[in-house]
Amino acid sequence: MIQVDRITKRFGAITAADEISFEVQPGEVLGFLGPNGAGKSTTMKILTCFLKPDSGTATVGGCDILRDPIGVRQRVGYVPENAPLYDDMTVGAFLKFICEVRGIDAGQAKTAIERVMHECALEGVYHQAIETLSKGYKRRVGLAQAFLHDPQTLILDEPTDGLDPNQKHDVREMIRRMGKEKCIVISTHILEEVDAVCSRAVIIAKGKVLADGTPEELRARGGGRLEDYFRQITVGGGASAAAAGSEKEGVA
Amino acid sequence: MTATQAIMKREFRGYFGTPLAYVFLCVFLMLAAFLAFRDGLYESRDANLRVFFFYMPWLFAFLAPAIAMRTWAEERRTGTVELLLTLPVTVKQAILGKFFAGWAFFGIALVLTLPIVFSVAYLGDPDNGPIWTGYLGAFLMAGAYLAIGTFFSALTKNQVIAFIIASLVCAFLVFAGQPSVLKAVDSFFLTSWLTPFVEQMSFLTHYDLMQRGVIELRNIVFMLAITAAFLVCSAVILDEQKAR
After folding, report:
1. Full domain range(s) for residue B17
2. Do residues B109 and B24 lie in contact, with contact meaning Cβ atoms separated by under 8 Å?
3. Residues in Cβ contact with B151 at an 8 Å cutoff, skipping those fewer than 6 apart
């Protein structure tokens, strides 16, 4: 379960997250929507305790992100944006390393690795160096490392970004399958993804939560199309956003 | 296995996964032997390793930053730092894991110089005390240099910048003990109270005694304190800079 309570994060003059609050229950797949630069990644980095919020807090998997960051990280599976990996390692060595860091003992690690290799369709590349893999495989290795300790909470930052349609389909299938019992947050700026996998969506722009509801509700508010609603609220408040953008350029 | 051990193991294997380790070991062993023989390891007709240890501070000043430059700069450039530091690992564990891997690597490099010891022992009857204290001094010094390299690697995403600045700082810490540098400090600041500080900061001042077989607590403490100080600073900087 994830409870986010008025998280705020500033980088200099830019407010990347402005009093963001939302909740995710087990069995839910929350789509975290917003234009590029809306603060999606920042929020996810805060939830995985990579960044500290300036104010506000959150509870992830029952642990407070400020008081027990290690506890949070033990309970969460996280795929950062672009799924960075240690390219010089083989897939097997990399997954073993993650098990070791997570303190999974050797016997359990073997079954865990076999399980995620199967789940993420990685059979056959166990001995291959990660740098020689295609983008789709790399992304699946990134997902596999997040599933190793079978976390109840998954935070996935643009998990399908840069994949071809078939690979996107596979990843979405996987998320949908896992979403039945786990608590999952995925960020995206692709609206079709929301319909494909999410049971609920939160739309943010300029660091603020603008809407929170099921895809159907949001679509109804936009007069039948999610795109329209997304444009309405992100560009509607975006007149000032555009102005702020040009101001920044002026300063630069 | 603790997280620190896991990270250390990965890093240590990582050295041997790239040509870096082999290039480093070859360059180090060749230079160490070349400099020792050039300065008359045999010609002096005296069974000791003084000329061999004499060049260690200079060699390490450039080789340690070369080993350390990757540690954090590369992680930050490729974004893997986000992967590593969202695993259940503290910044301290991550810094220590990587540092110990580098230090162990230097340990191996030093062990591989043992044939020089064996040949001197075969040809003559060396005093073993200064040899072992010399090795201890070199090992401690390598740790201090590595910590400095780690610090500058945490400071920038650019390995080359990390290497150059760390080398300069390491070189300064060696040269600070030279009479010419001390004289320059004297005349530049027009006071002499600063000079002993600069002299005490030099690795040479502390290492010199060890390679002669004198083990003094303060020399060991100096090396360990420099190591610890730079590692703590690395942790602070990394925590601050990791997301940028």
Report:
1. 3-241
2. yes
3. B166, B230, B231, B233, B234, B237
Q: Provide the domain count of chain B.
A: 1
Tokens 């600070």 sit on residue: B176
Subunit contact A84:B14, Cβ cutoff 8 A: no
The separation between CA B179 and the C-alpha centre of its own chain, rounded to angstroms, equals 23
Chain A CB within 8 Å of residue B240 CB: no
Instruction: Count CB neighbours of A233 within 10 A.
Output: 18
All domains in chain A, ordered by first residue:
2-82+153-251 (3.40.50.300)
Q: Given an 8 Å threshold on Cβ–Cβ distance, is A80 in contact with B7?
A: no
Residue A90 is given by DSSP the state B
Q: Is A210 helix (H, G, I), strand (E, B) or coil?
A: strand
Residue ranges in chain B modelled with pLDDT below 70? 1, 190
Which residues from chain A sit within 8 angstroms of residue B98, using beta carbons?
Answer: none
Which structure tokens are listed for B157? 């995403």
How many angstroms separate the CA of residue A204 from the nearest CA in chain B? 21
- Burial of residue B26 (CB within 10 Å: 0-12, 13-18, 19+) is exposed
Contact B88 A98 (CB under 8 A): no
- What is the distance between the alpha carbons of residues A81 and B53, in angstroms, rounded to a whole number? 48
**pLDDT category of residue A218 using cuts at 50, 70 and 90:** confident
Residue A236: pLDDT band with limits 50, 70, 90? low
Q: Are strands A14-24 and A2-11 parallel, antiparallel or unpaired?
A: antiparallel
In 3D space, the residue among B238, B240, B227 whose CA is nearest the CA of residue B60 turns out to be B227
Mean pLDDT of A154-175: 87
Determine the pLDDT at residue A245: 40
Provide the ipTM.
0.86
* A87 interfacial to chain B (CB closer than 8 Å): yes
Residue A251 has pLDDT above 70, yes or no: no
Alpha carbon of residue A37 to chain centroid: 14
The answer to whether A70 touches B88, Cβ cutoff 8 Å, is yes
Question: Each residue of B23-32: pLDDT tens digit?
Answer: 999 999 999 9
Pick from A72, A53, A50: nearest CA to A63: A72
Tens-place pLDDT, residues A177-199 = 888 889 999 998 888 888 888 99
Is B85 an 8 Å CB contact of chain A?
yes
